Amino acid sequence: MSQIERVRTVFNEWAENGRAEGMELGHGPTAIQAFDLLALAPGQRYLDIGCGNGYTLRWAAERCRDAEIWGVDVSPKMISLAQDMDASGAGIRYLCGQFPHPEIPPNYFDAIFSMEVFHYMPAIESGLEAQRR
Ligand SMILES: C[S@@+](CC[C@H](N)C(=O)[O-])C[C@H]1O[C@@H](n2cnc3c(N)ncnc32)[C@H](O)[C@@H]1O
């Protein structure tokens, strides 16, 4: 099994046994500080890489209703959890797959967030370079 397949398997299990909500609770107090520093403004484009249960996507939708909001996660169960928890009506775009992801356009986003994800990537340098683009 490849590294990314192992990551997908682990986080599918976490999504099924309630650990995504545990991560939201545990990461939330730190994540909100970083999220606020992004100062997402109306009409801006926001991406969360490795969005888990999608809590920052919902923050973006609550605080900035006109933002274009995207979340990507390699775990289909995390993506489905994030979709189930989304009552925002903000048209959040959910992508299931590994980042870098072919449907994510380069030079497109105003703000990018990621919490505890890059160290799971098979090649962190190329992941960081894709995030810079
Ligand atoms: C430790 S969890 C953090 C989830 C969320 N950011 C949070 O703070 O709760 C890591 C997440 O990153 C996802 N992930 C790991 N490597 C990824 C990759 N290369 N592309 C997309 N998602 C990835 C996992 O499926 C998992 O949902």
3D architecture notes:
By secondary structure, the chain is α/β, with parallel strands linked by helices. The chain has one domain: Vaccinia Virus protein VP39 (Rossmann fold, 3-Layer(aba) Sandwich), CATH 3.40.50. The chain is 47% helix and 14% strand. The chain is built from five helices and four strands. It has a four-stranded parallel beta sheet, covered by helices on one side. Helix 3 (55-63) links the parallel strand 1 and strand 2 (68-73). Helix 1 (3-16) runs parallel beside helix 4 (76-85). The longest helix has 20 residues, at 19-38. The model has no long low-confidence stretch (mean pLDDT 96). The structure holds S-adenosylmethionine (SAM). Residues 7, 11, 23-24, 27, 31, 50-52, 72-75, 78, 98-99, 115-117, 120-121 line the site of S-adenosylmethionine (SAM).
Task: Please outline the helices and strands.
Layout: H1 3-16, H2 19-38, E1 45-49, H3 55-63, E2 68-73, H4 76-85, E3 93-96, E4 111-113, H5 124-132
Parallel strand pairs: 1-2, 1-4, 2-3
Helix pairs in contact: 1-4
The structure holds S-adenosylmethionine.
Please name the defining characteristics of this protein.
133 residues; alpha/beta; Rossmann fold; 4-stranded parallel beta sheet; binds S-adenosylmethionine
